[in-house]
Amino acid sequence: MSCSTTESRFGGLEEGGTAVLDAPSAYPCPPEERTGPLWDALREVMDPEIPISLVDLGLIYDIRQDGGQVEVDLTFTATACPCMAFIHYDIADRLQREPGVEEVKVIETWTPAWTKSRITPEGREALRKFGVSM
């Protein structure tokens, strides 16, 4: 089963949800299904160390919305990332500016582990411009 674009644990894509969480193959959400206003908002949230979006770095695994409640599944490149608190704050701050979003819960997940293969083509291009080889 792939990431659902019609019905998730918290509703369909029109509510911002995308994944059925009890389906391991659906996680993280495939890049082609990372659409909608919440995904677009998170594309504006940059990594504090390099100006590349968290979405393009492949750190956002899924977003779900139930009414005014939003959950974001987030991973990091390393367990000792010094920017964890900043990233949590930036995600919540940006999403709470979206219409209808009242509360944001960021859930750290380490499974599956992040790898550089999760970086989008746009993220790879941005990294190259900053002199980071892929």
Overview of this protein structure:
The protein is an alpha+beta fold. The protein is built from three helices and three strands; from the N terminus they run αββαβα. It has helices at about 35-40, 85-95, 120-130; strands at about 60-65, 70-75, 105-110. A three-stranded mixed sheet has the order 1-2-3. The longest helix is centred in the C-terminal third of the chain and has 12 residues, at about 85-95. It is globular. The N and C termini lie far apart (about 30 Å). The model is unreliable at about 1-25 (pLDDT under 50).
Quick gist of this model?
This protein has 134 residues and is of the alpha+beta class. The protein has helices at 37-42, 84-95, 121-129; strands at 60-66, 69-74, 103-108. Strand 2, helix 2 (84-95) and strand 3 (103-108) form a beta-alpha-beta unit.
Strand content: 5-15%
Average pLDDT score: 82
- The helix/strand order is HEEHEH
What general outline do the C-alpha atoms trace? globular
Low-confidence stretches: 1-25
**Strand tally:** 3
**What can be said about the biggest beta sheet?**
3 strands, mixed
Helix content: 10-25%
Question: What distance separates the N and C termini?
Answer: 30 Å
What's the helix count?
Answer: 3
| CA-atom Rg in angstroms | 14 Å
Derived from helix and strand composition plus strand pairing, the structural class reads alpha+beta
Strand order of the largest sheet: 1-2-3
